[in-house]
Amino acid sequence: MITMLDRWQFAVTTVYHFLFVPVSIGLALLVAVMQTLAYRRKDEEWDALARFFGKLFVINFALGIATGIVQEFQFGMNWSNYSVFVGNIFGAPLAIEGLLAFFMESTFLGLWLFGRGRLSARLHLATIWLVSIGTILSALFILAANAWMQHPVGYKVVGNRAELTDFWALLANSTLWAEFSHTFLAAITTGGMVVLGVSAWKLLRRHETAAFARAARLAAAVSLVAVIGVMVTGDLQARLMDEQQPMKMAAAEALYDTQSGASFSILTVGNLSGNPIFQVRVPHLLSLIADMSWNGSVSGIHQIQAHEAATYGPASYVPVIWLSYWSFRLMIGFGVVILAVAIWALVLARRKRLDRSRWFLWASLLAIGAPFLANTFGWIFTEAGRQPWVVNGLMRTDQAISPTVGAGSVALTLAGFTVLYTVLGVIEVMLMSRYARHPLHEDEADSSGSASTPALVY
User: Fold this and answer.
1) Which pLDDT does position 443 carry in this prediction?
2) 340, 325, 344: which is closest to 370 by C-alpha?
3) Which of 199, 201, 253, 319 is at a distance of 20 to 30 A from 70, taking alpha carbons?
C-alpha cells in the first residue's frame, strides 16, 4: 500500500512538472530563432514575435521551477533507501545541472529580460541563445541520471549503495543519447506546436495576420522536422529497449510468448492476454522494430519472467500490461496527429492559404494538446514499463521507499499536491491565455520611448 501511494505521489508531481519542461526547451529555441531572424534581417516583425512568445516562455519557465523543486524533496523524504543507493551516482550529473545549467539559464534569462536597450543587439541576442543552451544542458544531465536507472553503467555496488567508477561511462551511456535525442526533439515539437496553435488562434481572430502567418509557417516547419526526428530516435530507442529491457518491449506489445517474425498490434479490442474481440496487426513489424530483421525473434513475457525469476529470485517481474500497451500506442497516436497537422500546415502555406483555412486553424488550436499528451504517455510507458525495478536489475521499487514514512502522511501529501497542482495548472492556463491575447506590438505602445520600459514587459 505504502509503495503504491509513494509511486502515485511521485507520478502526479513528475507528470505535472514535465508538462513545463518541453515547452521551456522548445519555446526558448524558437524565441532564439525568431530573434536571430530579427537581428539578421533588421526585421521589427520578427522582433515583436520573439518578445510575444518570450512572455509565454517566461511564464512557463517560472512555474516549471516551482514544480521541479518538490521532486527533490520527495527523493529524501519518500524514497530515502533509493537516495542512499543512487546518491553517489546521481551526485555528479545533478550537481552539474544545478550549478552550471540551471544558473546559466537563470542568469542569462535575467540579462535577456532586462538587457533590452542596455546591451548591444548582438549581445542581447547571445543571451537568449545561452538560455536555450542552458535548458538543453539541464535536460541532458537530468536524463543522464534517468538513463542510468534504465541501463546502469560505470558503477560498482558497495554494501547498500552504488558507487560511480567511471563518470565518462555515465555520459557515454547508449541509453542516455537515445533518450536525450528523443526527448530534445519531442521538446522542439512541443514548442513548435504551441507557437503554431497560438498563431492559429490569432489568425482566427484576424489579429496581425501577416506576422502570425509567419510564425505559423516557421512553427509548422520546425514541428515537422522535429516530429520526424522523434520517430527516428524512437525507433532507435525501441531496439535498445529490446536489448536492455526486453520485458518492457514485450509488455508494450502484450506479447506473452516468444515469436519469430512477430507482428505489431496497431489496435486491440478486448482481452490483451488472449482471445481479443478485434485486432489490427502489421505482420513482422515488431521483429523489424526490435532488431531490423524480418523473422527476428522477440522474447515473450512468460519466457522473460522465468529468466528474471531465475536470475534475481522468485517474484513477479511483469509490469502492468494494459498500461504499457496503451501508453505506448497513445504516445505514437498523438505523434501521428502532430505529423498530420504539420504537413497540412506546410501544404496550405505553399498554396498561400494557411491563414484562411478555418478548418486548419481550429485543428491547429486543438492540436496544442497533442505533444503534451504524447510526452506524458511516453514517460508513463518509460517509467511504468520498467517496473518492478526502480533501477533496472539492481533495486526494486518496493526496496526504495523510506521505511519511516507512513501511508497516512503520503496519502495526505498526495491529496495536497493534487489540489495545489490543479490550482497551479489553472493559473498557468489563465496566464498563458491572458498574455496570448495581448497585441503583438503592445510593448512599443507602452514604452513611450523609454529605453528601460520594454525590458519590464516580458
Assistant:
1) 56
2) 340
3) 319
pTM, two decimal places = 0.90
Residue 285, classified by CB atoms within 10 Å of its CB into exposed (0-12), middle (13-18) or buried (19+), is: middle
Chain CA centroid to CA 354, Å = 28
Give the relative orientation of helices 174-204 and 358-366 as an angle to the nearest 10 degrees: 140
- Rounded Cα gap, residues 331 and 334, in angstroms: 6
Secondary structure in 3-state letters for 246-275: HHHHHHHHCCCCCEECCCEEEEEECCCCCC
Residues of the chain with pLDDT under 70: 274, 442-458
Give the integer Cα–Cα distance in Å for 439 and 206.
Answer: 11
Closest CA to 134 of 174, 168, 165, 100: 100
Alpha helix ranges (H) inside 245-354: 246-253, 285-291, 301-312, 321-350
**Cβ–Cβ under 8 Å, residues 298 and 242:** yes
Q: How far is CA 447 from CA 56, 357, 450, 452, in A?
A: 19, 35, 5, 8
155-158 vs 297-298, strand pairing mode: unpaired
Least Cα distance to 339 among 429, 221, 194 occurs for 221
> What is the structure's pLDDT at 454?
35
| Three-class DSSP category at 284 | coil
Give the number of other CB atoms < 10 A from CB of residue 337.
19
Q: Give 21: exposed, middle or buried? Use CB within 10 Å, 0-12, 13-18, 19+.
A: buried
CB-count exposure of residue 292 (10 Å: 0-12, 13-18, 19+): exposed
Beta bridge partners of 278: 269
Cβ 237 vs Cβ 307: under 8 Å: no
Q: What's the 3-state SS for 64-113?
A: HHHHHHHHHHHHHHHCHHHHHHHHHHHHHHHHHHHHHHHHHHHHHHHHHH
Cell output for 222: 520546425
